[in-house]
Amino acid sequence: MTNPPIPGAPSPEPPSLDEPTEVREPLPPKPDQTGPETVGPTGQPTGADRARVAQSGAYLTTAQGARLYDTDHSLKAGPRGPVLLQDHHLREKITHFDHERIPERVVHARGAAAHGVFRGYGTASGVCRAAFLGKDVETPVFVRFSTVLGSRGSADTVRDTRGFATKFYTSEGTFDLVGNNIPVFFIQDAIKFPDVIHAGKPHPDREIPQAQSAHDTFWDFVTLHTEATHHTLWNMSDRGIPRSYRMMEGFGVHTFRLVAADGSTTLAKFHWKPKLGVHSLVWEEAQIINGMDPDFHRRDLADAIEAGAFPQWELGVQTFPDTPEQTFEGIDLLDPTNIVPEELAPVQPIGLLTLNANPSNYFAETEQVAFHPGHLVPGIDITDDPLLSGRLFSYLDTQISRLGGPNFGQIPINRPHAPVNDMLRDGMHQTAVHRGVAPYRPNSLDGGCPFLAGADTGAYVETPVTVPEAKKERSAPETFADHFSQPRRFWLSMTPPEREHIIGAYTFELGKCYEQAIKERGLKVLANIDAELCRRVAEGLGLPAPEPTVPAADVAPSPALSQLGREWPVEGRIVGIVAAPDGDLEGVRAARSALLEAGLVPLVVAPAGGMLDGDGGDPVAVQRTFATARSTEFDALLLAGVPARGGDAGGARDAKAGDAATAARGVDPRVLLMASEAFRHAKAIAVWAGAQAALEAAGVPLDAPGVAVAESGERAVAEVLTLLPAHRVWERFPATLGAS
Ligand code: HDD
Fold it and tell me: Crosslinked positions for 3'-histidyl-3-tyrosine (His-Tyr) (predicted)?
């Protein structure tokens, strides 16, 4: 018997609006969805992967492949009756959902990744036998960028170090270069990693702040533990808030040992150099973006790749003779808090990385990828840097709990492209069906297989370095004790705007600490870097500047450390065009075309969405409205006329120059905000069609550097194209210091 329907209640089968009803095969998997193909000993695909492709067949099924006729209603005793325990589909669906999450990474939890290809130049072949560095050898790669401190759902543009981890699926096995966008590290010995991370993570009682270093425990640790000074200074510099993952350098940090075909060895540091240059946000911008678009970096990377603007980096090495002392020009190469200035050891390009495909599935690829500095290939060996030694343990260990067992190497994104023939067996989530009966050596039952390789058949052979005769102790070498001369070199290498940003960052971060003693200790550390830096931060904190406790090191600046003073390609830069519906739409069309032709991304901003076609010409699509746009999304701003409050374009445009108050009353406040922010953040601004009234109303001086009043849309684009290669209008500083 069925119950009578309840008057007014929704129908149990609401008609669906646009759901297709034709049976269709699912879309074929994208090429990267299956991960690297399993190949046999001869290098031929085994075909084993076909079974792994998700979503085959047109019909919805259970996990066991039984077709389903309904997935929206639990099995019940009548439409209003109790749900039955025997509903196996309900239980399977909910149970699987309950277990969808895996533990996030203990550090670097938030990341974004892309597929790509690495092409060797062959220039490293004299010092390194690794096959993937050979001339024109192409190797598939997967790169994951990340922040360090924040949780998986935290914002992208926080002040933090960025991870830059690359998996090279080489023909000789997988090589992982697990680096950062900062070339030094907080600690010299891995045993202190839990300390620095516990200090940086949110306070254990209230679990705040999220994804920030601006709090007491972080500054307590890094000021007591002065070997962290150099890394902290980089974090406080513009490097801590990159404009884009595409515009960051990457560093292997440690000194590695390269091995040539003849067995000779060379010490080396790895560098990634972005083709688009190294650029940053300003702090106010970064803070606004965290609210406006917490996925700013992730979106930027994915959008650029989808648009075909593939980001590229050159891999380079600094090389040093492999002497027993392992120092270069007095710099200890085993101390990961040191850099070697590029002026002393130039970075030599050895290959090109191009990221050309977005992941198909975030969880399967970006979340499950497992990097490990111990994934090495013949030709690349480690040194005794004590930080690296601990990492060689930690990464393998962490994957076992994060990915649920020791077989994470079989997950598609982690599978090597080189043939794998190990004797590892069983364990959680074993997906391989191993053949043979003798996973041990020596054996006779499997015909002695697998065989051992020699150096001449591609084996990874550790370099037989001599270990110094020494007594066992917990200690660091004396050369690890200088914590201030390298930070001083960094400070001295900065230009005035970069120094102002650093002063602003320390003042902000120490100012956020509650403990007076921590602020005072922070100033003592700064006094040992530079008296002026210390004095300015002390001023901001309202505290006296202490005297240094060590003499100022006599170091030469390294101009290569500064991000300013060079010009870079502008492809992929985003330019906002604020348009009035009844303004110069022809000019907007011309500006769009000129920007597209130059490889930039124009985004038209108007009071409301839809199309602008008031002049009867080709409709101009609106990409952002005043409700969704913010200056922080743009590298440069164009104003094509003055859209007034409520979209009425008339009033403000008629305001006379200089009559800012009248104009301000007419212009939509969101346009005023866009203009004043773009000015404060030292972005190129160009206006035409009378839009100077809006600039004046926003308090932007028309004669300021990087502000152009043009006759047409095309001329306005020409103006910003001359300014963008320097990234920002640096001459505008210090007038815009409030933004630092
Ligand atoms: Fe680490 C992740 C980079 C020191 C322990 N690290 C991780 C990632 C990057 C780095 C980029 C994210 C990889 C990904 O995207 O999945 N880590 C570095 C660099 C270091 C460094 C450049 C110093 C030069 N790390 C370091 C030490 C330890 C760890 C000293 C431990 C002793 N790191 C880990 C970890 C993580 C990790 C806990 C978390 C997730 C993972 O490994 O896979 O094992």
Answer: 372-395
